[in-house]
Structure formats: C-alpha cells, structure tokens
Amino acid sequence: xxxxxxxxxxxxxxxxxxxxxxxxxxxxxxxxxxxxxxxxxxxxxxxxxxxxxxxxxxxxxxxxxxxxxxxxxxxxxxxxxxxxxxxxxxxxxxxxxxxxxxxxxxxxxxxxxxxxxxxxxxxxxxxxxxxxxxxxxxxxxxxxxxxxxxxxxxxxxxxxxxxxxxxxxxxxxxxxxxxxxxxxxxxxxxxxxxxxxxxxxxxxxxxxxxxxxxxxxxxxxxxxxxxxxxxxxxxxxxxxxxxxxxxxxxxxxxxxxxxxxxxxxxxxxxxxxxxxxxxxxxxxxxxxxxxxxxxxxxxxxxxxxxxxxxxxxxxxxxxxxxxxxxxxxxxxxxxxxxxxxxxxxxxxxxxxxxxxxxxxxxxxxxxxxxxxx
Length: 373
Fold this sequence. Notes:
Blueprint: H1 2-33, H2 35-43, H3 45-57, H4 64-70, H5 72-86, H6 91-115, H7 118-121, H8 125-129, H9 138-156, H10 173-188, E1 202-203, H11 207-212, E2 217-220, E3 225-228, H12 236-248, H13 254-267, H14 271-292, H15 294-303, H16 306-320, H17 326-341, H18 354-362
Parallel strand pairs: 1-3
Antiparallel strand pairs: 2-3
Helix pairs in contact: 1-2, 1-6, 2-3, 3-6, 9-14, 9-15, 9-18, 10-13, 12-13, 12-14, 13-14, 13-18, 14-15
C-alpha cells in the first residue's frame, strides 16, 4: 500500500508540473503578442518570483547555481545508472522515468517563463527612457567617444594603478555590492523600471574556468543569483556586477542590461564605479568607431589619458591567454543559440548594440561636445 501510495503521489506531482508547463506556454505566447502585458507581468509577478528566489539563495555565501554545475557530473552519473540499471528493466519503468524527466523540464521552463521571459518580450528600454534610437552616424560615434574619453581622463586621476597598468578596486566585493545597491536605489528613485530590492552578487569559485569561456558574469534564473567572474581585471567587475543585477531586476536583453549597468555606475558617487561604467561603455563605442573610421578611432585613442591606455593594454595582455580555445567557441555558440531563441536576432552581437543606446543618450550633448553629467 505504501509503494502504491508513493507512486500515486509522484504521479500527481508530475501532472501538476505538466499543467504548469502548459500554462507557461500559453503565458509565453501572450508575452509575444502583447508587449504591454509582458511589461506589466515583468514588473509584478515576475519581479516577485525573482525576489523570492534571490532571498532564498542570498542566505548562502556561495553560488548555488555554481554548486549545481560542479556536481552535475555526479547527477549525470546517477541519471545514467537509473536509466540503465533500474528503469530499463521494463517498459513501464522507462515510462515513469521519462514522465519524471519531462516534469523536471516543465519546472525549469515554468521558472523561466514566470521569472525572466517577459523581459525579452516587453517594451524596449529606449522607449521606456524616452530615447530616440536611430541609425548611428560616424560623427555621432566619434563625438560620443570623445565625451566618454573626457570623463575617463578626469576619473583616472583618482585611481590606484599597479605596475602592470591595471587599476585597483579600492574595496572588497561585499563593499562594492553595497555601493552598487545604493547606486541602484539612487538611479531607480521615482522610476517604475527596473525594480529595486536588496540582493548581492556571488563571486564564482571557478572564475578562471569561466574566463576560458569568456563569461564575465551570469544570471541564473532558476536560482535568482547574479554571479560574477572575479578573475577578470578589477575595472570589469563593478560593471559586470551591475549588468547581472540588472538581469535580476528584469532587464533581460543584453544591450539593455549593459546600458542600465552604465547608468547605475554613473549614478554612484564612487569614482571607481563610475570609472568601471564609463570604461566598459567606452570599449563598446570605440570598437564600433574603429570599425567605422580607424582614423577617428586613433584620434580618440591619442586623447586618452596614459593611465587609461595602460589599463587597456593590461587587459589585452590578460585576455590573450583566454582568447582562443574550445571552451570559448562552445560557450559562444550556446549563448548565441539561446539569445536567438529569445528574439535577440543579433545573437551574441546584441551586447554591442548598447552603442546605439549610448549615442541616443548622449545625443542632446553632442551639439556642444561637452560632458555635463
């Protein structure tokens, strides 16, 4: 009787999860058809789901998602053992196994749709911020790069620099997190998007491995965690953390998360957070400028403070050891496929589309070519 009761209870769980999976599919189709509905859902139910997951996992000092990844070979071994040794003995056993596996997939899909998917289908951030996102002219790229350079030069005087040329973040990750949360509070004051709540980023224990995959950070929707790679140079870390925290707050598209990360770093009263935001944005803009007009790109570089130039050279030297490898190629292909599946037609190149947002943001300042912020 006990065994039969257990089977019946597990079957009920499977039915519930399949029902949630079906409901999630309908909900996802509604997101696709009605962006305003996706926006509303993202700000209410999805935000509540993200906060609940974040509050549950913030209790752990380590990344729960990373722990699951590290133990995944063991889970895979157990899975294979159960298929080969236990369930393969009968057709009924195989049906039970695949029923449970399908239910697990439905659970993951439900978490994705309820907590993160609406951010991909809602109104774009340029409309939310009242920006005019239009095709970017080479002159606008050039002037935007000059504005960013001017600000970076003024900030670089306040920084501590190593012999390698890299700057030093003058506080711990925990202190950086407090500063970022305060900056989010400042930036989101009086705004309905993105949402603001307390959370903290999780440094990845296997950061060096993630460096080989060219991953500076990752938001895991099924645990609600903003994870960051702390193996990268210091100036990358605050911007990356702000980017992943943006995902945690419902900013799903990569270019939009990049732009929110910049705006939040800019809203901080801390010089290093500002420097991190400006330099990371400058790299996107200058890369686009060099592709469009190498002469103007070199002109901007010549105007850059020697300290910032040294930072860029130090980063190039650091990244060279990770540039070409099988892990990076596989990681990019997987990420590209995922982004395409969510309607980001540029795939991994969508990160670079932050240039359009940056130019739109600075456009009203370009007539005078002076930084007033």
